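Worked Example 4.2. Read the sequence first, then its structure tokens.
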Amino acid sequence: MTLYGIGLGPGEADLVTVRGKQLLERADIVYSPGRLSRSVALEYVDEDAIGDLDFPMTKDEEKLRRAWKEAAEVVAPKAREGDVAFVTLGDPNVYSTFGHLRRTLEAFHSDVDLEIVPGVSAMTAFATALGVEIEAGAGLSLREAANGASPTGPDRMILFKVTDAPATHEGLIEAGYDVRYGRRLFMEQGETLITDDPTELAERDYYTLAYAERQDLEIESPTAAFQRGGHQ
């Protein structure tokens, strides 16, 4: 009897992994922390098998700890009796609500068996959506950029939670970066938008990311060399 933390991917139901799909279809109950993950899970499970958990959007640590503990108290007995899934967009171990639940279960219900099923993350799928190639040997840093933050330093960055794109853009341009944005990439919920114009993203949206690359960065990607009349 196991609790499975299942990554659903960025939001399109057909980007759920085969393993994730199989476990969802056989789970006795599937817990969802929000409406977006719930809508993806419903592609594979009946609505009466979905259980909701309350994870308040607050920075009040006491309220958060109380919510995590209450959620663990709901999930733990079910996971002792049968197979239970907790679904989350993206990957369960990458900036995910599941991490709070896992740590709380380990602290108060350590007998519960846990297994994590990785999911496609928008922070890797961005390269396909934005037409970016990160070649072998290149460095890429992951940064949070909520509320207009403009992290700088690395030659290449993927920024997530870009909730104030115009402010973030201003700081990055001043620091010498070229920037491209993607909103709701590979998501069925809402309109996907890809742009290098931050004014198109004036409306705040948690599911916005950016790729920033230094303007003076010299990239020499290896290629196969060919000669006319044959190849080497």
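Now turn to a second chain, presented in exactly the same format:
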Amino acid sequence: MIADERRGLADLTDTLTPEQLRAPSLCSAWTVKEVVGHLVAVVAAGNGAALKTLVRSGFNVHKANARLAATTAARPARELAAILRAHAENPFRPPIVGYPGALTDLQIHQQDIRRPLGLAGQLRPEPLRISLDFLVGGRAVGFTPRRRPAGLRFESTDLDWAWGDGPVVRGPAEAVMLALAGRRAALPDLDGPGVAMLDRRLP
């Protein structure tokens, strides 16, 4: 599933114009190309480069991540796509979050790219289910603070999936996933009495 997502992102990257690559993504202050750079750096930067960047960033993981993404994104887009394809089967398992975290990172970031550009992209049901379970399962360090889903019930309207107790947040599985990951842009796709509470918990 991870390999398929990497190849799909490579295919998408190859279709993007320079203007689209410079456009803001849904992910903080990153451009579309910087999001691609982040996903390339995850598998291609190497432990040495990652450690050096972490030291330069005062061991702040978020700052190091942003620097590594920006550095990698300086490469031509076609090169980034080629690296993704070359590393599609890379077995790297991120610490703590494991393979579910890697899969979720790819799914979320692809929508970070597609949504602001108005590009449709259907996520597959089984990977989506894995990501939803991961985001509410307590291991989603860096993705979902524990307090975000606490006391709410999340229900997918297009996937046989639900979790939690409390006021309901209901909508397409993709929107539920993005909202759990802190993407405020997904809120208009959700309804239910729990949406207002979730809104207050998003950055």
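Notes for the reader: The chain has two domains: 2-102, 125-201. Residues 98-117 form the longest helix (20 residues).
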